[in-house]
Amino acid sequence: MTRSSGKPMKVLWSELLPYEFKERLSACPVVYLPLGICEPHGQISAFGLDTLKAEWLCVEAAKRVGGIVAPSLGYHIHESGYHARWLEEVVGEEQAHMTGMPPHVLLHFFLYQLRAFVGAGFQSIVILTGHGGGNELDLRRVSDAFSRETGVAIIVSTDAQLVRDQYQGDHAGRYEISQLMFLRPELIDFSQLWRQTEVGAGGRLALGEDATEASGEQGARIMEACLAQLCEVVTKQSASVQHKENLIKPRLLSYEETENIWQQAKFMGPWNTSLPHADQKTVSETSQWKFFEYHKL
After folding, report:
1. What is the residue-wise DSSP string for 145-195?
2. Residue 40's Cα: distance from chain center in Å?
3. Against a cut of 0.90, is the pTM above it?
4. Domain 25-292: assigned CATH number
5. Cβ(91)–Cβ(39) below 8 Å
6. What CA–CA distance (Å, rounded) separates 220 from 232?
7. Domain boundaries, the chain
8. Residues 21-49: pLDDT tens digits?
9. Is 37 exposed, middle or buried (0-12, 13-18, 19+ CB in 10 A)?
């Protein structure tokens, strides 16, 4: 998709010149924030799968229905709460090589990203995380507190939630590995499967049991379905804020105002990512993940 000048369409905030930013903002005051993480997806896959799929969807949606894509956040919550037992099961005592962050750090920073978006003039915010499984619930909690205070509309979703009526999401299985085989096939190498039995390589590293059933064709269908749904959701939200009476005046919230929102979000109790699920087994006392099972900050 190109401009009339023949130049590729620019939608990344980091690449736009000031006048280009203002033009896109005026045409469609929507900002997209792709979220992901570096975490193991087996011996066969690149660590950044979650971030890469979120980035692609946000960029393609901005090209199709308008808006600007903010710099990606490639760090996410992943050791604490219910993650701890899962990591013990699928990674064990091996190195996970993750860009994991504790809830109180990641979510606090996330709130200040929302603050930056409103200060820049956006009327609508789309949060798309490729790393889900429950983390998105805490992102929604912070977003809801921010929306109540500012009036800005915020969508929070995972890619799998966009197509849950069509596909079953997974972790490094047929669903996710297919996605990356479509997006960046050079980042999948099935010839490395043998390394899960190699001493010191890390074992299976959370690879799904049906990963070898993945294909680029399946990935294309999944990603196009995700994109179509994302575009539909964004278009509906954009329509609801385009009327002048609904427009929010751009304003850079003070630190004190932002901290008040943070306290509102915290007041609702423990973060979803702070505690194990009720049906999970207790993390072994000798596991490296035991320390993170209950997050108390």
Report:
1. HHHHHH--EEEEEEHHHHTTTT----SSSHHHHHHHHHH-GGGB-GGGGGG
2. 16
3. yes
4. 3.40.50.10310
5. no
6. 18
7. 25-292
8. 999 999 999 999 999 999 999 999 999 99
9. buried
